[in-house]
Amino acid sequence: MALPVNIDDLVNHRKVEWARIEYKEGWNPERIAHTICAFANDIDNWGGGYVIIGVAEENGRPVFPVTGIERNEIDQIQKELLNVCHLIEPVYMPVVEPCVYEGKHLLIVWVPGGCERPYKCPEHIATGVKSPKAYYIRKLASTVKATSQDEKELFELTGDVPFDDRPNVHADITDLKMNLLVEYLHEVGSDLANSAEEMSVADVARNMQIATGPAECFKPKNVGLMFFNPHPENFFRCAWIDVVDKPDPTGEGMVEQTFRGPLHVQLRSALDYIRNRFLREKIFKYDDRPEAGRFWIYPYRAIEEALANAVYHKSYRIAEPITVVVTPEAMTISSLPGPERSITDADLAACRMIGLHYRNRRIGDFLKELDLVEGRNTGVPVIVNVMRENGSPPPVFSSPENRDWLSVTLPVNPHFCEMTSEMENPISQRTALKTALKTTAKQGLATCKKMHDTGDCSQESGHVVSVVTAEEELEQIEIALKIALEIAPQKFRVQKSEKIRKRMAKIIQCLLRNSQTNIAELVTTMNVSLRTLRADVLLLRNINVLKRIGADKNGSWGVLLKW
Questions:
Q1: 293 DSSP 8-state letter
Q2: Cα(320)–Cα(261) distance, rounded to whole angstroms?
Q3: What is the DSSP letter of 243?
Q4: How many CB atoms lie within 10 A of CB 33?
Q5: Of 225 and 550, which is predicted with more confidence?
Q6: CATH number listed for the domain at residues 7-159
Q7: Using an 8 Å Cβ cutoff, are 339 and 397 in contact?
Q8: Which strands form 104-111's sheet, in the order they lie side by side?
């Protein structure tokens, strides 16, 4: 049974948090049984975990190169593992997959959170020895015996399976669509993708743990319908994202766009729409340094993290969509319900939201595999950091006392307060500057007014030579690149179409934003083939427009073009 995750990412805990992975150099039935029991109990709704047999660990981290296990041991270990799992009460069967990693054989035991928790197993496992049974749980990266208080909490969780991990009795296994399943498996690099097209939907769903029940009543789980049905709103009311452009408080000129479909599809579509419609960049050039200052009206990474977190943590039992409202002074992302009650108002004000439990453990797993959310409790720090790096006022997290909802407000960057009057929407042109100086982000907008009045747009030492938008910068790059191609040595002076010059200019602009961008990231950003991109970069290097600084792996790009 193949796993629906990429083995290399799993071993290196790139997408699954390290606390959800247990490394074992060899077969140790007692400790492995305790860990399986702990992952199955899933006291914090993390989504269970993985036991990787054949990898040594040091301080909870894998030791490379991996040691592996002998090939002739694999069958025997699986038989003993089956016997051990029958000692767990109630009986729990994990998913076991032999695999080859770096030329060594490993055995991966996938332990999703159990539906019949709490589970207990013998304290000691030895032939002919009868041992009392105990409950085991995970505390960070360790498996520990549950205390009396932990046991009480486990019993309170009895039958309380997270909504996304429950079977949906109103759906049928045919509601899961094979094309969506295969597309996902290919994207995450799962070995299951190689055989999925030859399997039935039910078999693929069983491998991915997104369906459950006996053969005569095999039902998809809610998470399966959310990701692998084209219309999840048919099963979960208002399971979509609304993006509202509200240029005037009265609602005049308001434009609303709704994004539906599988959760990851609607999330990506909404992010693309927001990026294309609302995001603007300004470039400040100074007389005392070669580097330009670059500022976004909202940093895309903060929007991506806030919206992905809303998709992750929303309750799909509440018939309310996720909403994104964009006004001239801020962008606000809201979802229902709010954070757990252990998070105080002081925590919200300090942007310190460390939850003890996950609401949707399986939704989180799928979003992490797709690189759409960060690991445990790291989303808020990412938002705070990228807002600060962009020179924006800090984000504002709001939730009422009863925690019915949560909203994240991203104030506009001060450099763009005057720019809101330049937006294409005519309503925005009349109201933006007046509205912008009102304030949801008083400090940032006051700074903006000062900059506007004094002409000091840099907030830094040095004199601003010029200020251009990203579009204007791209035009300047294109003109300079055209000249560079015309005066290049004869062997590189090939006829280049305007479309190709525009593409190469965009490459240069991307590298100006981040000189450490690698080829793979450029391929994704530019949406071209690897072969095409390499040819463009090679030409730019040959005509001395780009140069590589340092090693290919850890180096950076230098842009030599002047404009």
A1: E
A2: 16
A3: E
A4: 23
A5: 225
A6: 3.30.950.30
A7: no
A8: 21-24, 49-53, 104-111, 95-101
Nearest by Cα to 380 from 355, 398, 399, 353:
353
Is the Cβ–Cβ distance between 55 and 24 less than 8 Å?
A: yes
Instruction: Kindly indicate the confidence band of residue 495, based on its pLDDT and cuts at 50, 70 and 90.
Output: low
Q: In the block, which residue shows the tokens 């039958």?
A: 159
Structure tokens, 195: 């055989």
Strands 241-245 and 396-398: unpaired
Class of domain 241-454: alpha beta
pTM of structure: 0.72
Residues in the chain: 563
The DSSP annotation for 339-372 comes to --TTS-HHHHHTT----SS-S-HHHHHHHHHTT-
> Residue 158: what residue type?
T
**CA dihedral sign of residues 462, 464, 465, 467:** positive
CA 185 to chain CA centroid, Å, is 16
Cis peptide before 411 (omega within 30 of 0): no
557 to 292, 517, 538, 545: CA distances (angstroms): 15, 8, 13, 10
CA distance 349 to 547: 45
CB 143 within 8 A of CB 31: yes
Enumerate residues 6+ apart whose C-beta is below 8 A from 194: 2
Q: Where are the alpha helices (DSSP H) in 390-547?
A: 426-436, 442-454, 470-486, 498-513, 519-526, 530-542
Return the CATH fold of 467-559.
Arc Repressor Mutant, subunit A (1.10.10)
- How is the beta sheet containing 142-145 ordered, strand by strand? 120-122, 133-139, 142-145
Nearest residue to 78 (alpha-carbon basis) of 191, 130, 190, 1:
1
Distance CA 117, CA 37 (A): 9
List the chain domain ranges. Answer: 7-159, 173-230, 241-454, 467-559
Residue 194 and residue 191: Cα distance in Å, rounded?
6
| Cβ atoms of 105 and 74 closer than 8 Å | yes
Supply the DSSP symbol for 291: S
* 506-556: pLDDT as tens digits: 999 888 888 888 888 888 888 888 888 898 899 899 888 999 888 777 788
Contact 108, 32 (CB under 8 A): no
